[in-house]
Amino acid sequence: MSRAGFFLYHSCRLVLGGLFLYAGVIKANDVVTFARDVANYQILPYSWNYLVAATLPYVEGVAGLLLVTNSRVRPATLVLGGLNVVFMIALASVIARGLDIDCGCFNPGSEHKTSAGMALLRDSGILLLAFVTYRLRGRMLS
Known about the structure:
By secondary structure, the chain is an all-alpha fold. The chain has one domain. It is about 80% helix and about 0% strand. The chain is built from five helices and no strands.
């Protein structure tokens, strides 16, 4: 692998891992507020909102930590990429239904709202980071 590819891989891996590690910690610190943000999507049955809010931050945090420590990179990237696709579908649903909610991604309960459209754009970039990390990790193993 070239030097540029090596640098790109580690940059993408660290940014993606740090992003989800941060998001997981922020959400885990206030599960009740995050559960309210999950409920605002109006997708899950009410009783599932807290379950998702209580488990999702830890999945994100562990996968982010794996990426930061450069271990189990491909499985962690697949998990985060899959979560990101599911979240993008949920955001598209919010846009299609005309709901005006905060995505609850990186600062649940903040007075600064992130619109669903902006979150969808941001998540497209995050998905690109996951794709690049996954592909370049495969080249590093070859």
